[in-house]
Amino acid sequence: MAETVATSPPHMDEGETRRDFLLIATGVVGAVGAGLAVWPFIHSMNPAADTLALASTGVNLAPVQVGQRITVVWRGKPVFIDHRPEADIKAAADVDLSKLVDPEPDSARVQKPEWLIVVGVCTHLGCIPLGQKSGENRGPYGGWFCPCHGSMYDTSGRIRQGPAPKNLVVPPYQFTADTTIKIG
Amino acid sequence: MEAPTWKNPVIGWIDRRLPIFTMMQHDLVDYPTPKNLNYWWNFGSLAGIVLVIMIATGVVLAMQYTPHVNHAFESVERIMRDVNYGWLLRYLHMNGASMFFIVVYIHMFRGLYYGSYKAPRELLWIIGVFILLAMMATAFMGYVLPWGQMSFWGATVITNLFSAIPLVGEYIVTWLWGGFSVDNATLNRFFSLHYLMPFVIFALVFLHLVALHTSKSNNPLGIDVKGPQDTIPFTPYYTAKDMFGLGVFMIVYLGFVFFAPNFFGEPDNYIKANPMVTPPHIVPEWYFLPFYAILRAITFDLFWGLIPAKLLGVIAMFGSIIVLVFLPWLDRSPVRSARFRPIYKQFFWIFLIDCFLLGYAGANPPEGYFVILGQVATAYYFAHFLIIIPLLGFLERPRPLPASISAAVTAKGAGVPARSAAE
To answer: Within 13 A of B109's CA, how many CA atoms are on the CB side?
Structure first.
């Protein structure tokens, strides 16, 4: 018994020892290693390469008449394309920004005023608002109306009334020619 | 624990090396149970049996189901039409989910009424809350698998809840989906997790039982067991009573399966999922309706928009379950059973009615009168736990408690030692 005591490190009772250091270092390396090992599991659940590869969509706007709205699919979501008549453009531009939930001028939401392009997903909980087909309820602001929880959007796709916190999202797009666009 | 001696040499050989038979004898036969348990105590074992039925039917359904956006809906229809007894297995599984929630909700309200969450059973209760959360996740993901319109849009609405989280919300939603919308990747992972979760629940149920058999069962009087005269062995008394309750339960359960299998379902879920068309009225399954009402009750921002309504709704919805974790410490009354708490007893029933009102508000579109109803009922839900229950602990004068279970429930009072009477 006495021998066991004698072979113990002499600084046993004086705070840190090499054993403590090794213990902490091993623990830290183990924790970091476990953290790194977990990452592939988590990241595997993010969008895969083939999903990302489908991330852009080309659209020919030439056949879309003034006042007509079409829906195209981009990243599995509907994108609303609205060929806005003059009255709708004016209505969107004339709104007092201080009255908006998510203030944004119409000019910042379009590249060409006659073409409004927004993701057709309600910013509340992801339903698809009505208003694309003729005869559907467009709500009191002439834009879109979400049937799930009653959010109402104007002719610029901005939220005017209801639980949605944000305007309809404008997707990244560019005009590749006068009447063709590439979304994404 | 006194190890019993086994007559059968094979059982004895195994038991000396792995005492499973001793454990079964100890926990399923000898387990000393208060002799005054009423029928509300049947629902714990019923929940366990429903869990086993769900796992059994689920395992064979998974052998026929295809988790792919192009085949999922059709594979479920194939189960219904072509697979031998597929209709029976699917209807058992579908209605079993509803039965599971009915049984568990009754089990929980029994705990609320008789104060089963109080010391020394706090952990037992908290494990139960986690079982409820795990059940909700499992049921939600299972409802997505048939890939009908309600499956798809329910999944869209619920996963979008996470976008309310500040800064990282959008990334979390994309990560949950494995894409930019609810799609094939989402369906696949939901199937994987739906198969995993029941086994997590099974493990939690095991812990729930270990905790139960450590602190022992509560009883309708809410007073502690004072000695062997207050208890009877679990077998044969409560095994027989549980079996009888199981029979009654199966009549109800199979009644739905055979005569009204779609009673709890939504007709829209027999329309294949279409990501381009939202159904006009999205409702979750009935067992989520009160929580859905709480989610939608918050229509105002807090702190000048720092916490937007959407985030606040999500916090309130999860908070409505998390508050149960703290219940053992919110309730300061030393008396467990509502039988001896004249004021709490009344608030218990008001709370139950409030939960039904929340469900009613959740089932209806958020317009006009239903918005106010949902908001008032939500406010009352939280007031019950955060104001009424803590105050009652100080203000209420409980009625006198009986000297012992035996004194209260036997004719001669403290008299008959049940154990010796039974033997």
So the answer is: 18
